[in-house]
Amino acid sequence: MMRLDKLLANQGFGSRKDVKKLAKKGQVLLDGKPVKDLATHVDPYTADLVVGGKAVHYQKYVYLMLNKPAGVISATEDVKEKCVTDLIGDEFKPYNLFPVGRLDKNTTGLLLLTNDGQLAHQLTSPNYHAEKVYEADILGKVTEDDVKAFEQGVTLDDGYVTKPAKLSIIRSFHERSYIEVSVIEGKFHQIKRMFLAVGKKVLHLHRRSMKGLELDTSLTPGAYRELSEEELDLLRS
Question: pLDDT tens across 72-126, in order?
């Protein structure tokens, strides 16, 4: 059960003070009748609630798939930089969404935003082995020796040895390579540092999938949509 004023505030109808004003105007209906006492407790999932002629469908958690563009940071607020949450419409602002893990400022591709902390932890903790697949443009000729090095774990500049990663060479010629790499952890600038460790440089990095969830190719950079139940089941499995 939840207080009515809290429920409506959480669903984006403004502060509790704003909701009180709506009730005074007779715009808050519960079971077809105007509500005057917003301290009333209701079941948010079953209550027949209408505000300003709009039916309220309670949603505790929100899950969005974003095609992250370059030049945007994976944060909720920053005084200088544009954040991924700045790309999200006002209808989702009340949910206080946050990015699941981080993509570097100029890394593009699949980024999930949610307010479900438990699922976010399961997708980012290396203990759960949630595989993340990236495509990259590399300065340098990637070889089978690099593939073997990634399989064994690469020693980064701070001495940390990464968990085994799968590196596949899509095309490699002269001093330019196009590869696919999958990892189960997300250290700071990890993939860029892994390639630096083998004498290569990442020119562009794009995340294609996370735990089997593929980026919707119909989403243009900066566009987003809610996940389907089937996609949520895949992430929770």
Answer: 999 999 999 999 999 999 888 878 899 999 999 999 999 999 999 999 999 998 8
Domain range enclosing 16: 2-55
87: three-class secondary structure by DSSP: helix
Task: State how beta strands 176-183 and 41-42 pair.
Answer: unpaired
Residue type, 59: Q
For residue 80, the domain's CATH number is 3.30.70.580
Total domain count, the chain? 3
- Strands (DSSP E) contained in 121-227 are 132-139, 166-173, 176-183, 201-210, 213-214, 224-226
Question: In the structure encoding, which two tokens stand for residue 171, read together?
Answer: 């095309």
**153-199 confidence digits (pLDDT tens):** 999 999 999 999 999 999 998 899 999 999 999 889 999 999 999 99
SS3 state at 210: strand
* Identity of the residue numbered 224: Y
Tokens 């429920």 label which residue? 7
Q: How far apart are CA 182 and CA 53, in angstroms?
A: 48
C-beta of residue 3 within 8 angstroms of C-beta of residue 41: yes
Residue-level pLDDT at 229: 94
* Helices and strands of the chain, counted as H and E runs: 6, 15
Catalytic residues: 104
Q: Write the CATH number for 201.
A: 3.30.70.1560
- Distance, in Å, from the CA atom of 148 to the CA atom of 164, rounded to the nearest integer, reads 10
